[in-house]
Every structure is written in structure tokens, then in C-alpha cells.
Design a protein that fits this description.
Length: 437
């Protein structure tokens, strides 16, 4: 077995210095993982608590200059109460878009203005719950004003989501062109909505947008902030409304590929600060609270899907079959997304085999990697699939009767907590009543 302590040292070395490296090092040793597997059979997702905490602290510190800066963690990325509690302890709020996510927040003790409710196509019951909890509601359409009023008096503060459409030059692959995205209000609608809300007694206003997803280009992220600052100024000039709150949404990217680099929070912050000083301050908008709703960037890099190679198949191509499948991680099958793979104990071996790494679904897209150069893999080898800490377990599903895995939390002292047990067949059948058969 290869001793990974050097890798761990390098990992800590770079993380501590905040260098935007991306070496795809696994922070635990093969022995540690094999010990865990005795108690928690593969597949499972494991999250590195310390790395998550250090990362979110770094983000918050980078924006220390911004008035009441707040990160609202996008719950959908990793809807686990233990992860939410870790983040809550760091002063992070929650971004929800469904009833279950609101209830999860309630159970963790995240309520009121620590929640932004950024939903779309929203059922009444969800708005009711959000209002009951005192969450800051972010409207996805102008028609939602009347819809919300049917449930009682409008809250004192309301946020609206902006879709710049063709006014934004740069789109990107996951959300695509804003004019083809279902979210938000047009520019004219933003003004009409604020006017209507003001007439109806709302006194605090927020602006929200999310036009990028998995964006690694800092200038693209800074550009979004500039666009929002200009909109806030125009709102002030045209309507005499000074917004209280600007939320840039999520979308900070994750360097899934080893050759990509982490977004430098300090660079991002400096770029946003420059436009804040230039655009907002001269218009007396220097008290506006700034926020992000990042999910992926917060937990994504610090989660790992651990799976065992169970089959090797040689036909027209070489296949390694593992005990995880697309039910545990959709991104490769759904988006063709790259997720780095480390074969534990073989970190230093040559990448002289080319494999498709597959799951067991009766779907040919159920592959974690296609034509990937890897060391020779034997049955029983443990594969660590990187960057599964966000939009990993949470996107899981039960097609083909596949069960969703456990989630483990890896603490700084080397101990592990099972923060969600693996599903059983009984869980899968819980909604069936066989007695009526
Ligand atoms: C999905 C989503 C987020 C989080 O996106 P990440 O890519 O995880 O940062 C934030 N806000 C809204 C409204 C979303 O839909």
C-alpha cells in the first residue's frame, strides 16, 4: 500500500496557503477508507468537514469589506442537516426552493431572514411555509405578486429575480443563454414589479440574479455583479427606491478537471469591490447587503464518492464495473461531466490502461468515466470519485430499484459520523401496500 501522508501534507500545505491549485488529492489513506468500509460498505459519499469549514471561512473573509455580506448555502446541493449545521455554525444561511428544503432548515434551526426562498413555478403551500418562517422571498415572476397576496399581506421585504436575457452577452453551458432560461423577470418587469410592490406597501427591496453555473471565469462572475449594481442604480434613479439587498445567486464553479483552477475568492471580491465603489457608492447605495447562494463551490470539492471495483469486462472496449451507479452521482451521465477518479493505493502507478468506468443501470449513459487513462484496476480496488460534495448524493434517484448510498462526515480528528444511512429495499418499498395485492 502506498503511504499517502505526503499527499495529505501537500493538500494541507496548499489549502493553508489558499493557492488555487487543484491536485485532486484524496485527504484520507487507503487504510482509513478500508477501516470505514468494514462498518459502512461501499458505495458512500464522504465529506471532509474541516475543508468545508476552511473554504467557507475563506469566502466570508474575502468579502469582509462588504456590508453584512452573507452566504446562503443552496440546500439542494447537499441537503443534509449535519452539513447545514456545520455551515450554520459559520454564520451561513440557506437558499431554499422547495417545501422539503424549508422544513429541513426548520429542523436545523435556520429560520427567518437566514433563509432566502429562491423558487420558481412555486406551489402555494411552499410560499405559505416560506412566509410562515419569515424567509426572504425571491419572486421569479411578476405574476407572483398577486399570487402571494392571495395568501395574506405581502411581507415587508421582497426580492425579485432578474433575467437579463439577450442583454447579457455571455451565457454558459448549464444555464445556457439567459433568454432561453425559464427564470426571473425581464428588465421592464423589474421596474414594474418594484412599483407594484411599493404601491402595495412593501418597503424593503432586493435584487437577485443567477446567470451562470459552474463558472470558473472570475471576470464572468464580476461582470454579473457589475450588471446588478447598474440595475440597482437605475432602480434608484427611476423609482427612487434604494434596494437593501443584492443577491448574486450561486454559480461559482468547481475545477472538476485537474488542469482547471479554483476561483480565487480574493480576486472575485476585489473585482466586485471595485464596481461597488465605482457604481454603488456615488449613488448612496453603499449600505446594500451583498449575498451569494453558492452550493457547489462550498461543499463540492470536499465530497468523495467511494466505490469498489466489482467487475472487469473486456469486449469492444475495456470496462470496469463498480458498485456505485448513476443513482449515486448523476452528473457524468446527465451532463457528460468530468469527475476525477483516484484508485486508492495506486496513486503513483502509471496511467497505462484506458477504461470506461460503469455503474449497473440498464442505461448506457451510466458511466462515471469514458476512455479514462487509469492505473491497472483489479477487482476489489477502491475508486474515489472526486468532487461529489454538491449535486452528488442529492441528485440521486431510484431508477432500476437502485438504492441511494450513505453519507459520512469525516472530522478533523480522523473520526467519521454517518450523517445519513444507506437506503434499504424497505425504504424503496415504503410507499407500496402489498397487502392490497
Ligand atoms: C442551484 C441554485 C443555486 C446554487 O447553485 P451552485 O451551482 O450550487 O452554486 C443558487 N441559487 C439558485 C436560485 C439555484 O437555483
Amino acid at each position: 500500500m502506498v503511504d499517502n501522508s505526503c499527499g495529505t501534507f501537500l493538500f494541507n500545505f496548499y489549502i493553508k496557503r489558499g493557492i488555487g491549485m487543484n491536485k485532486k488529492i484524496v485527504p484520507f489513506t487507503e487504510k482509513q477508507i478500508r477501516d470505514m468500509i468494514k462498518q459502512y460498505p461501499t458505495p458512500f459519499h464522504i465529506y471532509d468537514e474541516k475543508a468545508i469549514v476552511q473554504n467557507v471561512r475563506k469566502l466570508i473573509k474575502a468579502f469582509a469589506w462588504a456590508p453584512s455580506f452573507k452566504e446562503y448555502f443552496a440546500v439542494k446541493a447537499t441537503p443534509n442537516p449535519y452539513i447545514m449545521r456545520v455551515l450554520q455554525n459559520e454564520g451561513v444561511g440557506a437558499d431554499c426552493s422547495s417545501l422539503a428544503e424549508l422544513i429541513l432548515c426548520e429542523k436545523v434551526g435556520i429560520t427567518g431572514k437566514d433563509i432566502v426562498f429562491s423558487s420558481n413555478d412555486t406551489p402555494k403551500i411552499e410560499y405559505q411555509k416560506a412566509m410562515e418562517m419569515g424567509a426572504l422571498i425571491n419572486l421569479d415572476d411578476i405574476s407572483m405578486i398577486a399570487y402571494l397576496e392571495e395568501m395574506g399581506p405581502l411581507p415587508d421585504a421582497i426580492c425579485v429575480r432578474y433575467n437579463p436575457g439577450p442583454l447579457l452577452q455571455e451565457g454558459n453551458a448549464i444555464i445556457g443563454k439567459p433568454e432561453e432560461a425559464k427564470y426571473g423577470l425581464t428588465r421592464e418587469q423589474i421596474f414594474a414589479a418594484f412599483q407594484e410592490l411599493q404601491q402595495k406597501g412593501v418597503s424593503h427591496f432586493g435584487l437577485h440574479t443567477m446567470v451562470v453555473s459552474n463558472e470558473l471565469n472570475v471576470s464572468g462572475l464580476i461582470h454579473t455583479a457589475k450588471m446588478m449594481f447598474e440595475l440597482a442604480v437605475e432602480v434608484k434613479e427611476k423609482l427612487s427606491i434604494a434596494v437593501d439587498f443584492i443577491d448574486f445567486g450561486g454559480g461559482i464553479g468547481l475545477p472538476y478537471r485537474p488542469e482547471e483552477s479554483f476561483v480565487d475568492y480574493d480576486e472575485l471580491s476585489a473585482g466586485i469591490k471595485r464596481y461597488f465603489e465605482e457604481i454603488m457608492r456615488p449613488h448612496g447605495l453603499d449600505k446594500v447587503k451583498l449575498a451569494f447562494e453558492c452550493g457547489r463551490a462550498i461543499t463540492g470539492p470536499y465530497g468523495y464518492l467511494v466505490t469498489t471495483a466489482i467487475h472487469h469486462k473486456h469486449i469492444w472496449k475495456e470496462y470496469i464495473g463498480v458498485d456505485a451507479c448513476m443513482a449515486n452521482l448523476m452528473r457524468p451521465g446527465m451532463y457528460g461531466a468530468y469527475h476525477h477518479i483516484t484508485v486508492l493505493g495506486k496513486e503513483t502507478q502509471p496511467l497505462d490502461h484506458v477504461y470506461d468506468v460503469t455503474g449497473s443501470l440498464c442505461e448506457n449513459c451510466d458511466k462515471f468515466a469514458i476512455d479514462r487513462a487509469l492505473p491497472k484496476i483489479d477487482e476489489g480496488d477502491i475508486l474515489v470519485i472526486h468532487d461529489t460534495g454538491a449535486h452528488g448524493h442529492s441528485m440521486g434517484f431510484n431508477y432500476n430499484g437502485k438504492l441511494r448510498s450513505a453519507e459520512l462526515l469525516w472530522h478533523e480528528d480522523g473520526t467519521v459520523t454517518c450523517i445519513r444511512r444507506a437506503e434499504t429495499v424497505d425504504d424503496l418499498f415504503a410507499t407500496l401496500d402489498f397487502s392490497q395485492l
